[in-house]
UniProtKB/TrEMBL annotation:
<keyword id="KW-0963">Cytoplasm</keyword>
<feature type="domain" description="Phosphotyrosine protein phosphatase I">
    <location>
        <begin position="8"/>
        <end position="156"/>
    </location>
</feature>
<comment type="similarity">
    <text>Belongs to the low molecular weight phosphotyrosine protein phosphatase family.</text>
</comment>
<feature type="active site" description="Nucleophile">
    <location>
        <position position="14"/>
    </location>
</feature>
<protein>
    <submittedName>
        <fullName>LMWPc-domain-containing protein</fullName>
    </submittedName>
</protein>
<dbReference type="Pfam" id="PF01451">
    <property type="entry name" value="LMWPc"/>
</dbReference>
<dbReference type="InterPro" id="IPR017867">
    <property type="entry name" value="Tyr_phospatase_low_mol_wt"/>
</dbReference>
<feature type="active site" description="Proton donor">
    <location>
        <position position="130"/>
    </location>
</feature>
<dbReference type="InterPro" id="IPR036196">
    <property type="entry name" value="Ptyr_pPase_sf"/>
</dbReference>
<dbReference type="InterPro" id="IPR002115">
    <property type="entry name" value="Tyr_Pase_low_mol_wt_mml"/>
</dbReference>
<dbReference type="InterPro" id="IPR050438">
    <property type="entry name" value="LMW_PTPase"/>
</dbReference>
<keyword id="KW-0378">Hydrolase</keyword>
<dbReference type="InterPro" id="IPR023485">
    <property type="entry name" value="Ptyr_pPase"/>
</dbReference>
<keyword id="KW-0904">Protein phosphatase</keyword>
<dbReference type="GO" id="GO:0004726">
    <property type="term" value="F:non-membrane spanning protein tyrosine phosphatase activity"/>
</dbReference>
<dbReference type="GO" id="GO:0003993">
    <property type="term" value="F:acid phosphatase activity"/>
</dbReference>
<dbReference type="GO" id="GO:0005737">
    <property type="term" value="C:cytoplasm"/>
</dbReference>
Amino acid sequence: MANDNANISVLFVCLGNICRSPMAEAVFSHTVKKHQLDQHFEKIDSAGTAGYHTGDAPDSRSAATCRKHGVPVNHRAQKVQAKHYEQFDYLLCMDESNLEDLQHMKPKGSKAKVALFGEFDPQGERIIEDPYYGGNDGFEHNFQQVSRASEGFLKHLGLL
């Protein structure tokens, strides 16, 4: 549980860091601002377990879905690095493949907590599926999932 002057840092992680994790980062940041909880967070960012898209902007469908809901997106893809395990308190990933990769990459003695972001979804939808090869409906579904999980994670931290 967080206390009143905690400086929490959160990294959202998916495979390529162009669909799910930049959406989760944007939605979570928006949710934090909406609840006026900015002072509790030192850093909110996202990354991918693979570096396929390093430097790229988020997928246009992911960004459009966020904008449709009034959520700004401003991110460039990056790959998870060992330093992230020290810079962030939480590495929250989208699926079990990401989770396995993060646990495998985690340096010994790391302070970071690695978990599925979907664990915080009050509707129990643990896996946030990759929408990349599907239609716009997948991005909308992801948006609803990360919105619920954002609220759930803030409750888990004791901030709501």
